[in-house]
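Response to reviewer comment R2.3. The reviewers asked that we include at least one raw input/output pair. We reproduce the pair for Tyrosinase here without editing.
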Amino acid sequence: MSLFAMGFLLVILQPATSQFPRACANMQSLLRKECCPPWDGDGSPCGELSSRGSCQNILLSQAPLGPQFPFSGVDDREDWPSIFYNRTCKCEGNFMGFNCGECKFGFLGPNCTERRLRTRRNIFQLTTSEKDKFLAYLNLAKNTPSQDYVIATGTYTQMNNGSNPMFRNINVYDLFVWMHYYASRDTLLGGSNVWRDIDFAHEAPGFLPWHRVFLLLWEREIQKITGDENFTIPYWDWRDAEDCVVCTDEYMGGRHPTNPNLLSPASFFSSWQVICTRSEEYNSQQALCNATSEGPILRNPGNNDKSRTPRLPSSAEVEFCLSLTQYESGSMDKMANYSFRNTLEGFADPRTAISNISQSGLHNALHIYMNGSMSQVQGSANDPIFVLHHAFVDSIFERWLRRHRPMLEVYPAANAPIGHNRENYMVPFIPLYRNGEFFKPSRELGYDYEYLQEPELDSFQEFLIPYLEQARQIWAWLVGAAVVGGIVTAVLTGLILACRKKRRGTSSEIQPLLTESEDYNNISYQSNF
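Raw output as returned:
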């Protein structure tokens, strides 16, 4: 079956998700600052009648932020999502979603009690039919309107503090492009003024957890619109690659025969229109990207600035990055030295881990190498290579987690750039997710990587996983309690022994009877030392 025919057949399936829930994108919800839609299963807000969740006040982190953003009350993304909503659904158990109508990642079933582990595979290990299906799914997402979510086309102030809602429909694929833009856009300060040193998804500790959630949500939306519960995002292992081996018409689109900046007309990606790529235009107008089409995908791999990115990353650079023991360090931004996160993101030299923003390594190197839509942060998700790339970056993050087994406390609780502390909610996701919730092994989130797979756990081990995770979080307290208990035991033992010695020192007349009466005549008293 041709890709076009497959995409046409898939279009009849149901769509879905992510950013402002359609049910909350109205004047009443904005003025009440409440987003607690009913669950279809019982008609109650957050499925409360079925004990799935309840409408709760949002608890915001009060931890101090770093100095990178010297403003307060000027950006809708501060203390997300409180400028729009201060009450949302808090789901119980394994339930999740803006109305608690879904299961947490890694669970399924009517009561979300069944565990499911899916495997992400190398795109070059897919069969032809599997690869064609993946490409068709991408095209379907680009042509399927989201039924559950809309995007904001104005700031809260431009919405007259909620009394004039400004939202727009968007297709499923572009919904994620818009979210990536919204998290990384500049702060609009009025007039023609903007603040550029702000990013809720990059250049700080949340970079890896944020993109982990992004991919999980993207994966789930594809599963929903296709009905394919087993779908997973493939990855491109770009280590030691000589060129862009996925840039062919068989995969992600080859080069145009006459214009090297465009995609080959033989690829249906050549007909895709990009959005959210004109950041300077939005800044000058003090406006948000409204998802208007802005032209075709641009890509000219390898014809980038070689002084900045001479080649694609090597295996040796990835291995050095994995050897770094600190997840984050110093200023916790793109100037951080010896930081695993900053080195993997690409702002630190992948051979020394010293910050060098004049060069682009690892993650950043691939974006620059693509030399087109992928190379501009806010609009980079327009190119479908983005998901292949970030799936592999996430696999490197996963390798680091498995190698170093960090406690949750390793992720910074305070003084990170705005939006990146452990308990901060990630912008712009609704339902809400905290950065720290995704600083854990992927198997606990229901997925693995083909090249990292370990033997399957038996049912007893699966049962123990949540309890072992709790023990891992409190092991320091357990060790402390054991030490204190040992000291107390030693002191008590010493006191008991001392008392016994003292007793032996008393006269024989007051010593207790040690034998039965019939043996009494055989007793011999011994001198006490």
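The chain has one domain: 20-452. The chain has a mean pLDDT of 88. Further pairs are available on request from the corresponding author.
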